[in-house]
Design goal:
Oligomer: homodimer
CATH class of the largest domain in chain A: Mainly Alpha
CATH topology of the largest domain in chain A: Four Helix Bundle (Hemerythrin (Met), subunit A)
Shape of chain A: elongated
Largest sheet of chain A: 2 strands, antiparallel
Distance between the termini of chain A: 36 Å
Chain lengths: 241, 241
């Protein structure tokens, strides 16, 4: 299964220093998200450069990327400041990953699942209308992998994600298709949690119902089946709170 | 009505050259989207710098931002190349604006409205559950502005957008709230089109039904009312195709 590369906010021309920039981005991004700078002024460019033992241009690049992700902003006469969490771009996979890794955030997962409850049933309905043969094959392929994972022959997490991403792709709508990276990122944490609570891998019967409805070109059934599946996830998450 | 600043992919530390970078970003971004580089190699950094009469660092910055937006990528031994449209980040307001301005793209508006059909009914249902007093005031304020616009006392476009954005904000879910910039950007074109087709401003009665259901804390009614409203938009758009 091959997918087009998704646009990444951290994309940057390949050249020397890129790995250093990525490393610094990751360290400082995670520090901001975990509150390391709460109540203290954010370091100056010179301080960051010294603390991390990198060049000035690596620091500048990392700060610029964190600004683009909504974590920092530059203010005249004040310098760089940390932005409030409401400004952090949750549709950026780095930001989402840092937040999910932070501590186990049930509230964030609940909010993400509420978003899935909007997106994925409609994507399934669109897929039932517009999926081409190779899309149906990818969806069936994802389901086969989930069955295989159930008997230990595949990774249950990867298989489950492949199934959901295949449906977003099959919608024939580029807005839905572009949510695949974000959905993959958050599903990693979400599926791990729900499988642990439920004491089993994902419910194959429920997933098969979605797949069948899409393959039989039944938009309303596909929407309802996906809705039921995600409502179950939401109910499971609610038992944790 | 004040909203938190949304994360912007084009955010960049305020300093000299920022306006030049923004200008170049806009020019080159629009050129890529309108197909100016289709079938020809993308210019080198030196060529771009000369063509646009800017400094090398302005060029480098603009190319980096276009890369982050999914329009360009750097390949070893090939240089910078234009990415296929499927890689362009539709959740980036610059990219979305360039695409909407390109030529009048009914298909893009249809796809966007299919996304709204997922997002906004659920947002309305969440708002009916979670909206606080000041959120309800903002939603009612948006509706008042729409009524006022109907008799020429306000801008019908701004009023309509304010109503829809207020509901996203009232959802109490940060993922929905963060879609406000993107929804505002595309609604500008969408509302203009549908009002022209329908030969009138937005349907106040339909919007009032959504507002009432949210204020009366009826999630299912709010969802259904918003769904009906957006399905009407989709039906109108389908008459154009």
């Amino acid at each position: 299964m091959t997918f087009l590369p998704a646009p990444s906010l951290s994309a940057s021309p390949a050249r020397g220093g890129r790995n250093l920039t990525q490393g610094m981005l990751d360290t400082v991004g995670r520090a901001i998200v975990t509150g390391a700078y709460d109540g203290v002024p954010f370091p100056t460019e010179a301080q960051l450069t010294e603390q991390h033992g990198v060049s000035r241009s690596v620091t500048r690049e990392a700060v610029k990327m964190l600004t683009a992700k909504g974590l920092l902003s530059a203010r005249a006469r004040v310098g760089t400041v940390v932005q409030p969490p409401a400004s952090w771009n949750l549709f950026d996979t780095d930001v989402l990953r840092w937040l999910l890794e932070r501590t186990f955030s049930v509230e964030l997962l609940k909010h993400f699942t509420e978003l899935r409850l909007a997106i994925e049933p409609e994507a399934a309905a669109l897929a039932a209308r517009h999926a081409e043969a190779h899309h149906l094959e990818q969806i069936r392929g994802g389901l086969d992998r989930m069955r295989n994972a159930d008997s230990g022959g595949d990774d249950p997490l990867d298989a489950d994600i492949a199934f959901h991403v295949a449906i977003l792709q099959a919608s024939g709508n580029p807005f839905y298709a572009q949510l695949r990276e974000m959905v993959s990122t958050a599903l990693k944490t979400s599926i791990r949690l729900t499988n642990r609570i439920a004491g089993r891998n994902a419910n194959i019967v429920d997933h098969a119902a979605v797949c069948d409805a899409i393959c039989r070109r039944e938009p309303d059934l596909a929407r309802a089946a996906m809705k039921a599946l995600i409502q179950d996830v939401l109910d499971l998450i609610d038992t944790v709170e």
